[in-house]
Amino acid sequence: MGQSIGRWIRGAALLPVALTAGVLAYAQEDDVATRLAALEETVNGSASAYVDNSYLFLIGGIIVMFMAAGFCMLEAGLVRSKNAAMQSTKNVLLYAVAGLMFWVVGYNMAYPGTTILNGLLGVTPGPWSGGDLSVMSEAGYAPASDWFFQMVFVATAASIVSGTVAERVKIWPFLIFTAILTAVIYPIVVSWEWGGGYLDTVWSFSDFAGSTLVHSVGGWAALVGAIIIGPRTGKYIGNVVHPMPGSNIPLAALGTFILWFGWFGFNGASQLAAGTVADINSVAQIFANTNMAAVGGTLFAMVTTAVLYKGKVDATMVFNGALAGLVSITAEPLTPTMGQAVLIGGVGGVLAVLTVPLLDKFKIDDVVGAIPVHLVCGIWGTLIVAATNDGATYLGQAVGVGLTGVFVVLASTVVWLALKFTIGVRCSLEAEEMGLDKAEIGLEAYPEFSRG
């Protein structure tokens, strides 16, 4: 009896210890379960962000790709009817050439593994490759989604050149120039900033979506081409400018709206991420600022043309005013307020209008107004970044603009002159008068107009 009582007493004494051990064990199991759940949530969140980021690139890339149609419609509407089929064909071909060259050499030059000359030249050779499809990339998005998004950007730069030199450039030399621009010239400039090269590391240069890296590159190349090829026959006789109106203003208006639409992908997807609340809020703000810059460019251009041309509002100037506003905000579409975005775009619209007669004064024939829109407003948009982005300086921005201009002008001059003195770049006078639809591709855009 005494032994039984003793065992009960010892058991009662150990009961708190057993209960404590049980509670601790349960707590440990609960803690492990919580940790596992948190880990699973983290993994799922990481995968979700990976998918969201990749979709941002893919959807943004599709939208930017549609800008190729916008350039095509704008240019086809602003050239004379005898050159509309040629201009349409050039735009389809340049997109294909740009895609091929950016895959073969351009991407790896723009985003090199190694650089030389203090980051001025990437030395990663060969075609781009996407790697293992079964794993998540450490970059946080599908590799091919990034390649696709970057590829449609390079086609934009080539489209800028197409419009400026329209109605007198032959198709084969133009496509050769496009190949070199998209394989070498554009990727080298991109590597200086987006590829982490010289401008990024030394000068803290900032160009969010490409006012300089895309638009000014195309604008400088177009300017050099216009000077070397020369103006259209009859455009300038003495000091008199002879207007050569476009054939289809509604088509040009459609092209403007397509480009306006495409710019949401151009700027919005350049946030490069959509997997967090902050990222998607930033994308939304970029959309809003992009739209308001175009609004400012359109309205300021309208008022400027009304003042300069005795109350008349020039439709083509209004269209280019919208595009000028878009180019101006592209270098920094996130940090400005919406009011600042309107002003930045508005100044761009005024600059575009004022630059047109300046080009005519120097007898530089820009058929669609690409130089005022993409070059002049690209410079303006890049410089004004320092006003709203604390990470940029006016000096750094100016160095980026200047270095890009010098390099692209020199490189484009070499290529255009090499083509001029070998296969020739300009069509014959007879072909120009006939129209390049017949002379270059043998197919007219509006055949019934010429049959009487």
Explain how this protein is built.
It is a multi-pass membrane protein. Belongs to the ammonia transporter channel (TC 1.A.11.2) family. GO terms for molecular function: ammonium channel activity. Residues 57-446 form the Ammonium transporter AmtB-like domain. It comes from Hyphomonas oceanitis SCH89. This protein is mainly α. It has one domain: Ammonium transporter AmtB like domains (Ammonium transporter fold, Orthogonal Bundle), CATH 1.10.3430. The protein contains 15 helices and 4 strands. It has helices at residues 2-78, 84-110, 143-164, 171-193, 198-203, 211-229, 249-268, 277-308, 315-330, 338-361, 370-383, 385-388, 394-420, 429-434, 436-441; strands at 115-116, 121-122, 236-237, 240-241. The strands form 2 sheets. A two-stranded antiparallel ribbon has the order 1-2. The protein has a two-stranded antiparallel ribbon with strand order 3-4. Strand 1 and strand 2 (121-122) form a beta hairpin. It is globular. The chain starts with a helix and ends in an 11-residue tail after the last helix.
